[in-house]
Here is the input.
Amino acid sequence: MVPVDSLIPYARNARTHSEEQIAQIAASIREFGWTNPILTDGDKGVIAGHGRLAAARKLELTEVPVIELGHLSPEQKKAYILADNRIALNSGWDEELLKLELQELQGVDFDLDLLGFGDDEIERLQAFRGNDQLHAALGCIGVSGSQSCVAQRGEHLDECAAFEVVREVGQQFLRMLGRCFEQAALGVREFHFLPFDVVDVFCAAATPAA
Here is the structure.
């Protein structure tokens, strides 16, 4: 453990941390403990963990766990500061598995705010049916271009259930579309919570067959 006040943030750290994200990191540390030590250069200079350091100060901690990477050259240190932040962003999500995990955590009343997902992201993941089921529902009520009433997972939909699927997805989509207009009015141009996969399904179903 190293005193918080002895650590020196990298002056040219290009990665930014908003107050909201620092609060999320602090909540994670409070719930799970220190699972990821701060990395330093051997001279108390921070290489990775600037957000965690800020969170520790927010929590008024006096000491934090540290791993020293004193073997790195100045060039390697500079490169690793960028790589540590960038490589993690190159991963993706299996959304079907993610939905299952969220559902199980919600089932035991775990605080989903600790996961770092926005409310809009969680709502999208929890509310929308899979494309296979939506396709099947549209086909079941006679929409041209959609598949039969049997979803790809072998789930059979009767006409009433099909209408319920389409109604539920449509209502959720319209609510999210409304939020897009609200965000656009505030100057936001990227809508990460808009389910473009569902947009594609509806557009394909509405396109007349050639």
